[in-house]
Structure formats: structure tokens, C-alpha cells
Specification:
Order of helices and strands: HEHHEEEEEHEHEHE
Distance between the termini: 77 Å
CATH topology of the largest domain: NADH Oxidase
Low-confidence stretches: 9-33
Strand order of the largest sheet: 1-6-5-4-7-9-8
Number of domains: 2
Mean pLDDT: 88
Number of helices: 6
Length: 228
Amino acid sequence: MKMHALRRILAVVVIAAACSTYLFVSIAVAQEKSSGAMITMPSPKLDGSVSVEKGLAERRSVRAYKPEAVSMEEVSQILWAAQGITEPSKGYRTAPSARGTYVIHVYLVAGNVSGLPAGLYRYEPKGHTLVKLSEGDKKGDLLKAAGQAPIGPAPAALIISGVTDRSAANPNWMYLEAGHASQNVYLQAFTLKLGTVTMAGFKPEAVSRALNLPEKEQPIYIMPFGRK
């Protein structure tokens, strides 16, 4: 009887250990998938085959997109054009900023991006990375909140958001900087044979709630993009 009891105790210990291991692994996997994960993107190219003049002459707003995925390389280039760092020693970026305050954040709403799960990401210029904020069909949430039909078929969209406390000295700064960044995105999209459009006809508070953006930020532009 004692031997049987000992075996039962050992069996319980083994099962408990297995359950603990499973729980630990499950938690680790969940944490890896949760918000805050850093994703390093492909390095941007600094030498293209399309001139600035050609881009300025032929750039157009595009509101209809093919149902094809965009690549991580294309997303990387678009985000770099918006706010990428061009002089690491001083932190200068592709778009000018009043007094170098950099009063905007750029978010990526990924729907159909090769190698990137659907969800909401924040672009970090330093390191050229994405910070995963949430997974799932955030593009659908954005479409409902903004009410702008072109968002639906687009494989991805940018949100250019003003950081209100940083621009307290002059609230206009965040709007000006958003304009600089959006023009860069237009030109970069053209060189990649992608289309995009700036959208400002939405309620910022509705978009903020839908995407759970920080309280001290105000969405200024939505820029869906994809193949023309």
C-alpha cells in the first residue's frame, strides 16, 4: 500500500510540474504576442530611380487600391519617408520640425502586410522599428470610426497624430509637421508605384477611441495606401 501511495504522489508531482511548465510557456508566448513587442524593419533605400521632379509632377491622390499585400520593405520605406532619421548624431528626420521638437507620432494600421500580423503599431524613428500596440482587425475599427470608404480595401494605413503637450508653445506646429510628413509619404508612395491619399474628414476623438491612442494625442491625418 505504501508503494502504491508513493507512486500516486509521484504521479501528482509529475502532472503538477507538467502543468506549471505548460502555464509558464503559455504566459511567455502570450507576453511575446502582447503589446510592446519591438519589430525591426528592413533598412530603407536611400537611392531611387525616380526623380523628385517626376514625383512632384505626377503625384496624385489615389482612393482605390488592389487587394494585394504590401511588403515589409514597402512599409519600411513609407514610414522612413514620414519620420525616418537622416542624421543620427543630431536626430534630424526626413520631415522638418519647428525647433526640432518633433510633435507628431506615426502609427501603422496593418491589414494585409506580408510578414506582419494585422494590428496597430507605432513607428519608432530611433532604430527604425515598429512597436506592436495591439493585434487584430484594427483597420475595420478605423473604417468604422473614420467613415472613409477607401480605408476598407487598403492593405494598410498610416495615422499621423499630433502630440498636443509637445506643441503647447504653438498648437499649429503639429499640423504643419503633419503636412510635411504627409507630402513625403505621397512622394515615396509614387516611387514605389503605390497610391495613397490624405484624409482629414473624420472626428479625431472617434479615431482615438477606436484605436485606444494616448490621451494627449490628436489624429490629424489618415493615409491609407496600397497598389493602384
